[in-house]
TrEMBL record:
The lineage of its organism: Bacteria, Pseudomonadati, Pseudomonadota, Betaproteobacteria, Burkholderiales. GO terms for molecular function: iron-sulfur cluster binding; oxidoreductase activity. This is Ferredoxin reductase. PANTHER family: NADH OXIDOREDUCTASE HCR, OXIDOREDUCTASE-RELATED. It comes from the Bacteria. Pfam families: FAD_binding_6, Fer2, NAD_binding_1. It comes from Kinneretia aquatilis. Residues 63-165 form the FAD-binding FR-type domain. Residues 300-384 form the 2Fe-2S ferredoxin-type domain.
């Protein structure tokens, strides 16, 4: 999935380096320091050299680099697949609702994208992601059409704040659009594991019913738990897009006790936030595409100076800086492409930039911006 902006309301068992991968502890487990012997040996070991030779025996054997092998691949819906991965011991687990960065080499270059974990932590350490193929999406196309059981992917640490509190109260309204279902499915599975301790409603928007993931499981949960409700809305088959009238029955009489969580495209998350403002007790949202900036002429050109590389480029003001730079062959570091992993943060030395999700503008010199969700309002100078 979901590829995100968080709106405000987001001891490891040591095993010998040449030992097969072991299960990762849950994300809540404290991370322990490696044993003294390994820390001492680290001063004499080049991790890249170690990984090269150890990888001849088992591709998951690394000195410190987290990797995961695809152990299961299954169709999830039209144009979507679920991949189950077995990580090595260097990956340290997750909390339901979080994301991680997956990396793979495609056409000779390393590509990294963020995907939501759709499962709950398992005893065997495996985890699952469900990926929806995006038109023109390099990574999603690779994962959906070319990735097979046995392939090994780079994995980053889990991140994100779209998680449940340890103490639940009131009732929960979950709003998902498209691949935004994946982190919310993780939360639903966590709630089911906790025997659905509070009333929960999941509303899930898709283009057509064929694009919907997890439907049999969600329908089964409605039979198992009387306080769990599920509504599938197919917008190209007569279903209504999110609006106040559609949400009203879910908030009647109990709005002040409702905790809302939403995930989907930027426009969907922004609209959910606006509709629920002042009605829900709390609201969290993640967007896997930036919201479209208002009153922006995408044809307006600005100059972006890249100080470290000594280049000056002309880019469209209406595009995110990351997309605009990539369109001209520049490949800045990036990860989630939605504003939460901070892989793309860089220093803006001069100029005015705008956060495409919140509309907040930054003119302060030498300030950090996330180029995946920021656009240039004026000429800029970046530390790239």
């Amino acid at each position: 999935m979901a590829s995100v902006q968080c709106f405000p309301l987001d001891g490891v068992l040591f095993v010998s380096a040449l030992t097969p991968a072991v299960s990762s502890p849950s994300a809540s487990s404290p991370r322990q320091q490696p044993p003294l012997l390994r820390r001492w040996a680290g001063a004499f070991v080049d991790p890249a050299v170690f990984d090269y030779w150890a990888g001849h025996l088992n591709r998951l054997w690394t000195w410190e680099r987290p990797l995961a092998r695809v152990v299961e691949r299954r169709e999830a819906a039209l144009g979507a697949v679920t991949l189950v991965l077995q990580p090595n011991r260097h990956w340290h687990g997750f909390i339901p609702g979080q994301h991680l960065n997956l990396g793979v080499e495609i056409e000779g270059r390393r590509v990294t994208r963020s995907y939501s974990l759709c499962d709950v932590p398992r005893a065997d350490g495996r985890f699952a992601v469900t990926v929806q193929q995006v038109d023109g999406g390099l990574m999603s196309t690779h994962l959906c059409t070319r990735t097979r059981v046995g392939d090994v992917l780079d994995v980053g640490p889990a991140f994100g704040d779209l998680v449940l509190p340890s103490a639940l109260q009131g009732r929960y309204l979950l709003l998902a659009a498209g691949s935004g279902i994946t982190p919310l499915m993780s939360l639903v599975r966590e709630l089911a594991a906790r025997q659905m301790p509070v009333p929960v409603t999941l509303m899930y928007w898709v283009k057509t019913s064929a694009h919907a993931c997890f439907v049999p499981e969600l329908q089964a949960l409605t039979q198992r738990f009387p306080n769990f409700q599920f509504q599938l809305i197919a917008t190209q088959q007569g279903g209504r897009r999110i609006d106040a009238e559609l949400l009203a029955p879910r908030l009647a009489d109990v709005g002040a006790e409702t905790h809302a969580l939403a995930c989907g495209p930027g426009g969907f998350a922004a609209q959910a936030r606006e509709l629920l403002a002042g009605q829900a007790a709390s609201f969290k949202a993640e967007a896997f595409t930036p919201a479209v900036p208002l009153n922006t002429d995408s044809k307006h050109q600005v100059q972006v100076e890249l100080r470290r590389s000594g280049r000056t480029l002309e880019v469209a003001s209406g595009m995110s800086l990351l997309a605009a730079l990539e369109a001209q062959g520049v490949r800045p570091a990036s990860g989630c492409r939605m504003g939460i992993c901070h892989s793309c943060v860089c220093t803006k030395h001069e100029g005015l930039a705008e956060d495409m999700n919140t509309g907040e503008r930054c003119s302060e010199p030498n300030s950090a911006i996330r180029i995946c969700v920021s656009r240039a309002c004026t000429d800029l100078s970046l530390d790239l």
